[in-house]
Design a protein that fits this description.
By secondary structure, the protein is α/β, with parallel strands linked by helices. It has 12 helices and 23 strands. The structure holds shikimate-3-phosphate (S3P).
């Protein structure tokens, strides 16, 4: 698919939808099931359709874990996993290919750093540019031996006996935190990780639900090694980061009344809803209930007049994936909005400060890039234009939602990258055509 075209005024966001299952929880379900020597059933994993041009992050994780000895089977849409225990993985015959997935790469580096064998890892050209030093350096403090190409992929993780200890998590990255938790499970002695900035906490919640080896005291995560993981099943809820696109679509288009069912409502993930509510968004969460320790429920959203907002500091790690779509909401809000302290956006599938600014500017937004953020002067309309995804799924989806309101026609070059997190995104969007 070379280009896709979206015509404004064609859409009305009324009705009831489901979004794909949560990617972060899906990755963790696969990794944690790999630590369970018995069978784990994972239902509602965001797997792909049969014919796809781009494989999803979760397929990448499955392939890498299978390469180190984990067994997977798919029966009636559920994934059954027979894992090996924390330190009993086996060497891969070839290079572990992390594809486009930063989460796969960083989590598996953590898991492999305390094994008794050497592993080689690589990724696609985009992943090769993304920093791995953020996991390499703290893992080296635990005794890991990792040689890389200037802190990037490709890299080699050698056999090491890791040692626990006390470490600070400065970056506010859930990927780094999870890599260290997985390493700590293979280390000698207790590990204490102090969270300086709060990031998504699915790993902690999920591990606590199936071992006694992880406890939390205030801002410290305490891990004992060699867990006995006991879990029969994980049921993965809908992804709030995918829901965010349709929430903003409903807010900025007239006459919307949308329900998004069965979404993960973990507070470290739906902070963007708090931000949109502060901007004047009419959004409600209902039917909340707990599964595997995670809060799940439905999200109701109506068209709203939005006003500007400042997004900064500690809230950034909790909305890191939603900043492109929040920027679109800001572009259509009254007043000037600011995104500050968000330098981390430069290390995602694209430099999301640059790509968000360049694409929204093409659509007529008054928007500026700063070193670590974005300044957006809101307007009451946008104009259709020729845009590009930069092969970044969240940028492609943001442009598509902008296209539902930008006057005229908006085209998106290389839109197929939406498959990374939302394979049927364009079909879902098409269902809202009048
Ligand atoms: C993720 C954490 C975030 C996020 C990514 C998924 C995870 O990255 O951007 O899409 O599942 O842990 P960082 O933790 O590096 O900010």
């Amino acid at each position: 698919m070379d280009k896709i075209k979206i015509k404004s005024s064609d859409y009305i966001f009324k009705g009831d939808i489901q979004v794909p299952a949560d990617k972060s929880i899906g990755h963790r379900a696969l990794f944690i099931a790999s630590l369970n020597k018995e069978m784990t059933k994972i239902s509602n994993l965001a797997m792909s359709e049969d014919v796809r041009t781009i494989s999803s992050d979760l397929q990448t994780t499955i392939k890498c874990l299978a390469d180190i000895g984990v067994q997977f089977a798919e029966v009636k849409g559920n994934i059954f996993v027979r894992g090996r225990g924390a330190k009993e993985f086996v060497p891969s015959e070839g290079i572990l290919d992390c594809g486009n997935s930063g989460t796969t790469a960083r989590l598996i580096i953590g898991l492999l750093s305390g094994q008794k064998f050497e592993s080689k890892l690589d990724g696609d050209s985009s992943l090769r540019t993304r920093p791995m030093n953020r996991v390499i350096q703290p893992l080296e403090k635990m005794g890991a031996s990792i040689s890389s190409t200037e802190g990037n992929l490709p890299l080699v993780v050698s056999a090491s006996q890791l040692k626990g200890g006390k470490f600070n998590l400065e970056l506010g990255s859930a990927q780094v935190k999870t890599a260290l938790i997985f390493a700590a499970l293979c280390a000698e002695g207790e590990t204490r990780l102090k969270e300086i900035k709060k990031s998504r906490n699915h790993t902690e919640i999920m591990l606590k639900s199936c071992t006694n080896n992880l406890t939390i005291e205030k801002d410290e995560i305490i891990i004992q090694p060699e867990p006995k993981v006991e879990i029969e099943s994980f049921d993965v809820p809908g992804d709030p980061s995918s829901a965010a696109f349709f929430i903003v679509a409903a807010l900025i288009n007239k006459n919307s009344e949308l329900i998004i069912r069965n979404v993960c409502l973990n507070s470290t993930r739906i902070h963007f809803i708090e931000i949109l509510k502060k901007m004047g968004g009419e959004i409600e969460t209902v039917n909340a209930h707990e599964i595997n320790g995670e809060l799940i429920g439905d999200i109701l959203v109506k068209s709203s007049n939005l006003k500007s907002i400042k997004i900064e500091k500690d809230s950034i790690p909790m909305v890191i994936d939603e900043i492109p779509i929040l920027s679109l909401a800001c572009a259509l809000a009254e007043g000037t909005s600011e995104v500050l302290d968000a330098g981390e956006l430069r290390f995602k599938e694209s430099d999301r400060i640059r790509t968000t600014v360049s694409e929204l500017r093409k659509l007529g937004s008054d928007i500026e890039e700063t070193d670590d953020g974005i300044l957006i002067k809101g307007k009451d309309n946008l104009k259709g234009s020729d845009c590009e995804s930069h092969m970044d799924h969240r940028i492609a989806m943001m442009i598509a939602i902008a296209g539902t309101i930008a006057k005229g026609v908006t085209s998106i070059k290389e839109p197929e990258c939406v498959s990374i997190s939302f394979p049927n995104f364009f079909e879902t969007l098409n269902n809202f055509r009048k």
